[in-house]
Amino acid sequence: MASVLSYESLVHAVAGAVGSVTAMTVFFPLDTARLRLQVDEKRKSKTTHMVLLEIIKEEGLLAPYRGWFPVISSLCCSNFVYFYTFNSLKALWVKGQRSTTGKDLVVGFVAGVVNVLLTTPLWVVNTRLKLQGAKFRNEDIVPTNYKGIIDAFHQIIRDEGISALWNGTFPSLLLVFNPAVQFMFYEGLKRQLLKKRMKLSSLDVFIIGAVAKAIATTLTYPLQTVQSILRLLIHSNIYQ
């Protein structure tokens, strides 16, 4: 229990949440373009910069940042839960012993499952809010009219039932492999570098994290596309 409630686990959780929020804020327009490309298959422009130019031209200069607050809130909660669970489970399991890549993968997977079950409602809401007001080429997408995060929760529970907040949980559980694979590669690369030096620099950590994330994202990207479409299908009749 002491390992679960440890100061170290809390520090990792806060650091992970803050780091993710900072990164998402910087690259949020790219995430907006990604989501549009995934869910709006009738859009003619297929490159990131062309999609962003279209969004700005049709919806305004700030449109690429639409839905920033709900996304950041969800990301902050999600990464806090994940990092806290990951480091707590690792501390309980390893207990001073040397960790292995296999253990990191298992711990990462379990932490991901816990994260999905606890934070899926936030992601359902933020996906709808981020796409609200967007000019889609696909006429089958049904527009929403949420006034904010709380109102979105209220309308979804009222109109669709509380279980609707967990729609899309299955593909999200499949995507648990993303952070699990990411942490497996991250921890593995870190251990290899630590064999050659006593301490890692900030640049080392940045490069290792970027490489691990790139590998994990490439391997699981098809699942991410399906997940985005299913979350939008909650309030539309696309492909139905």
Automatic annotation (TrEMBL):
GO terms, molecular function: ADP transmembrane transporter activity; AMP transmembrane transporter activity; ATP transmembrane transporter activity; coenzyme A transmembrane transporter activity; FAD transmembrane transporter activity; FMN transmembrane transporter activity; NAD transmembrane transporter activity
Stored InterPro entries: MCP (IPR002067), MCP_dom_sf (IPR023395), MCP_transmembrane (IPR018108), Mito/Peroxisomal_Carrier (IPR052217)
Keyword Ubl conjugation: no
Record key words, sorted: Membrane, Peroxisome, Repeat, Transmembrane, Transmembrane helix, Transport
Localization: Peroxisome membrane
Solcar repeats, residue ranges: 7-92, 99-192
Name recorded for this polypeptide: SLC25A17 isoform 14
Pfam families documented for this protein: Mito_carr
GO terms for cellular component: peroxisomal membrane
Membrane topology recorded in Swiss-Prot or TrEMBL: Multi-pass membrane protein
SUPFAM superfamilies: Mitochondrial carrier
Main location: membrane
Chain ranges passing through the membrane: 12-30, 67-85, 105-125, 164-185, 205-223
Family per similarity comment: Belongs to the mitochondrial carrier (TC 2.A.29) family.
